[in-house]
Amino acid sequence: MGVVKNILFYQLFESTSSTYTYLLADPLSREAVIIDPVLETTARDLQLIEELQVQLKYILETHIHADHITGADVLRQKTKARVGISVSAGIACADLQLRDHDEIPLGSHRIQVRATPGHTNTCLSYFIDGRVFTGDALLIRGTGRTDFQEGSSDRLFESIHQKIFSLPEETQVYPGHDYKGQTSSTVGMEKKFNPRVGGGKTKDEFKKIMANLNLSHPQKMAIAVPANKACGKIMTVT
Ligand SMILES: [Fe+2]
């Protein structure tokens, strides 16, 4: 067996929407994948890809975002990478219609697709080499909201328990956002300390918490959701 070198890993941040974008690359094959790019930071992401001398193969979305526009289409045009989104989104612009248990190759590594609906019906988590990218399903000491985009607190509780908390405790958790400056957690820490789903909280307790959040809708929602259903393609008015 050859030596499997560690994956190159970068956690990037977009401050207006507090979104994390992740770039992973296999150092041997130089193949790369980006998770949840943001339109406003595509130039930064492209520069990093160039500096690392890697080839972007896949652009993966954790879900149809409501708070920012994805950089997927711009990156696809510049790199010819393929865009992967949950089959549940039912959108034609996706090159890969992803399903639970799918595997995406990255050099000699594999990215495991885990369907984690509940925040939206299109939520996917991606697991690779001891790291899980949870999007807005599981946040650090929090969870995504469940009150729009076919959200369901019932489904989110099941998704987190079955698809994320079932991973080894030392698995590193990388969320789609953080609003307090935290960058990562572990499955073990969230199982213990997550105030919504950790510490042995029951589904009924979780559903009660989620029903009483009283959040306002994201400012960009009316623009972001339709744009993201077109993979972030910028529409020009003629
Ligand atoms: Fe979201």
Give short descriptive properties of this protein.
alpha/beta; 6-stranded mixed beta sheet; binds fe (ii) ion; 27% strand; 238 residues; 6 helices
What is the structure about, briefly put?
The chain is of the alpha/beta class and 238 residues long. The protein has helices at residues 42-52, 72-79, 153-164, 187-193, 203-211, 221-228, and strands at residues 8-14, 19-25, 31-35, 55-60, 82-86, 96-98, 103-106, 109-115, 124-128, 131-135, 138-139, 142-143, 172-175, 185-186. The protein is globular, with a radius of gyration of 17 Å.
Topology:
Elements: E1 8-14, E2 19-25, E3 31-35, H1 42-52, E4 55-60, H2 72-79, E5 82-86, E6 96-98, E7 103-106, E8 109-115, E9 124-128, E10 131-135, E11 138-139, E12 142-143, H3 153-164, E13 172-175, E14 185-186, H4 187-193, H5 203-211, H6 221-228
Helix pairs in contact: 3-5
The structure holds fe (ii) ion.
